[in-house]
Amino acid sequence: MNILHIDCSPRPESHSRQLSAAIVRLLLGVAPDAIISRRDFAADPLPHAAPDYATTLSSPATLAAPLQGALDLSEVLIQEVEAADVIVIGTPMHNLTVPSVLKAWIDQILRAGRTFMSTPAGKVGLLCDRPVFVGIASGGVFAGGRANQPDFLTPYLSVVLGSIGLKTLQFFPLQATAFLDANQAPLAREKALAAIDLTVVAEAPRLTTAGGE
After folding, report:
1. Residue of 176, 135, 127 whose CA lies nearest to 154
2. CATH, domain range 2-209
3. Confidence of residue 212 (pLDDT cuts 50, 70, 90)
4. How many other CB atoms are there within 10 angstroms of residue 15's CB atom?
5. Which one of 31, 34, 43, 69 has the largest count of C-beta atoms within 10 Å of its C-beta?
6. What pTM value is reported for the model?
7. What's phi and psi for 72, nearest 5 deg?
8. H-helix or E-strand containing 208?
């Protein structure tokens, strides 16, 4: 089994990093021989869309004749997703949504004709489904009865990853981190992970090979 492990927080010891690491440990408990591929978008951030990439994606005509090298990074990142049986993302909630480093990755892996096709009914994903576990750390509260701020992160990721075929998402929110002390944080992580469903991991190889990737 191949696990693609992504972290987004600029803080080396952040709650979201600890949460994603805990998810990976649980996955290794199920698949101890799993191979882990790592992307740390804080230590090694992706560039935002370059002019050649944006120009290539601007129309079907330019996409059919891409500028040399314009799609190289996009192709590398898409192939990493295709090679993964499971994806683990650790991310903070920045200003109610995803941080810009995660958005930069999304902008590279969503590519017309490669990971989705446009139809009159909307985008249709071209990638095979696989489990995606998303650990979210938020200084405030965005879910549950105590929510006091909007959540544009989880619905956005559900739609945008679903549009390329990744529909088996599980979210694990670790909320009110601004008010957690060192003793409370481990208990909060355990509570966030209590709902994890690892049975989907057994289906991962079948899902990722169903479309011949």
Report:
1. 135
2. 3.40.50.360
3. low
4. 25
5. 31
6. 0.93
7. -60, -50
8. helix 199-209
- What are the tens digits of pLDDT across the range 19-70? 999 999 999 999 999 999 999 999 999 999 999 999 999 998 999 889 999 9
Tokens 């991991």 appear where?
201
Phi, psi (deg, nearest 5) at residue 21: -65, -40
3-state class (DSSP) for residue 193: helix
**For residue 92, how many other CB atoms are within 10 A of its CB?**
24
In the chain, which ranges are E strands?
2-7, 35-40, 86-92, 116-119, 122-125, 132-137, 169-174
- Main-chain phi, psi angles of 170, to 5 degrees: -125, 130
Bridging pattern class, strands 122-125 and 132-137: unpaired
Q: Which of 74, 106, 89 is closest to 6 using CA atoms?
A: 89
Residue 24 token pair: 């990976």
Tens-digit pLDDT profile for residues 152-185 = 999 999 999 999 999 999 999 999 999 988 889 9
67: CB partners within 8 A, 6+ apart? 52, 55, 56
Q: Hey, is 162 helix, strand or coil?
A: helix
